[in-house]
Write a structure and sequence with these properties.
This protein is α/β, with parallel strands linked by helices and 124 residues long. The protein has one domain: Oxidized Rhodanese, domain 1, CATH 3.40.250. It has a five-stranded parallel beta sheet with strand order 1-5-4-2-3. Helix 1 crosses helix 5. The two termini are 25 Å apart.
Length: 124
């Protein structure tokens, strides 16, 4: 079941996507440079499962905590959320904060799961 997003939210996301580079799961799998994978979903989403190797900095705190977690503003960051909307918004903000190479994973966690790719399941 997909979520119905409000028109205002979608307009905000589409505006951010004009400034943010998205990459597909296939492009991420073929990525040939070091990156930090950042899950920007809510705590309960993270606890239910996440991509292997991801760092969790929810969208509600990422601006506050990113500089401590990833102090190198040249470091490539790949952000993901449930479907690619919140990650685009967070990527836009991180670029405004001075991060030079921030990408958003198109389709996010939902696309990863749909592709049957491995997950980290806490407690498993």
């Amino acid at each position: 079941m997909s979520k119905q997003h409000s028109a205002g939210f979608l307009a905000l996301v589409n505006d951010a996507k004009n400034r943010v580079t998205e990459l597909s799961i296939t492009e991420l799998q073929q990525f040939n440079r070091p990156y930090v994978l950042v899950d920007v979903r809510e705590d309960h989403e993270w606890q239910a499962g996440h991509l292997p190797g991801a760092l969790h900095l929810g969208k509600g705190i990422i601006e506050r905590d990113i500089e401590k977690a990833v102090p190198d503003m040249q470091q490539t960051l790949v952000l993901y959320c449930g479907g690619g909307f919140r990650s685009a918004l967070a990527a836009d903000v991180l670029q405004k904060m001075g991060y030079k190479d921030v990408l958003s994973l198109a389709g996010g966690y939902s696309a990863w799961v749909a592709a049957g790719l491995p997950l980290h399941q806490p407690g498993a």
